[in-house]
Specification:
alpha+beta, Jelly Rolls, Arc Repressor Mutant, subunit A, 2 domains, four-stranded antiparallel beta sheet, 9 helices, 26% strand
Length: 219
């Protein structure tokens, strides 16, 4: 098992799979390095499947009224996302674009079908993955309704740093995900940095004190 496969096996969804199923998926999946700004797939694409982020991060967009693309989420390293048209689904629901140079592992529908033919339990695992995505969307809607904008930003930083302290996203992208101006996010981040909770750089935010952010959110 090489380093890429070890990192893939450490991702919770893949770790939950029986070893024979995980090995079969690794044998049929595709490893790809993609540069920042490159599309991975687009909303409405018929070629569905599952994507795991090994390095870097993906930005997720959805079509909004007025032909606008709304950035609503970021997937950090360690995230798994997707669905299968073969499992009662339809076309891709979102557009995924590399936020930074990224290494991803792709499982197209053909690979899922081949593995599921020998290991039918894969469909149950895929259902669990889709349910987790739905739960995240519902939680995001609840946060948008219940939290003030600054709290929404803090909550998003906590979520994005769940698998590592560095959040690979710009202040402008974070502002778009939270639904406020870049100036507002810049001011809030400056305050958090002065308080030792985060450190900011070009295109990234390091969450230095994740528990401190959580206490601020729950205060």
């Amino acid at each position: 098992m090489d380093d890429r496969e070890r990192r893939l096996a450490a991702i919770p969804w893949f770790a939950s799979l029986p070893p024979p199923v995980r090995e079969a998926l690794v044998a049929r999946g595709r490893w790809q390095r993609r540069p920042a700004g490159e599309w991975l797939y687009g909303e409405g694409d018929e070629d569905t499947g599952v994507t795991a982020v090994i390095e870097g991060a993906l930005h997720l967009y959805s079509q909004a009224p007025g032909d606008r693309e709304a950035l609503f989420n970021a997937l950090p390293a360690g995230a798994v996302f997707g669905q299968s048209a073969l499992f009662g689904g339809g076309p891709r629901l979102v557009t995924a674009i590399c936020a930074v140079d990224s290494l991803v592992f792709l499982l197209p529908d053909q690979a899922l079908r081949q593995v599921a033919a020998a290991h039918p339990s894969l469909w149950e695992s895929l259902s669990t993955l889709v349910y987790g995505q739905l739960r995240a969307v519902v939680q995001g809607l609840a946060e948008f309704v219940a939290l003030r904008p600054r709290e929404r930003m803090i909550s998003r930083l906590i979520t994005l740093s769940a698998s590592g302290s560095r959040v690979a996203t710009s202040q402008a992208a974070l502002a778009e995900m939270v639904g406020v101006s870049r100036g507002a996010v810049n001011g809030w981040l400056t305050g958090l940095e002065a308080g030792g909770k985060i450190a900011c750089g070009y295109g990234w935010i390091d969450v230095v004190d994740r528990e401190g952010l959580r206490r601020m959110l729950n205060a």
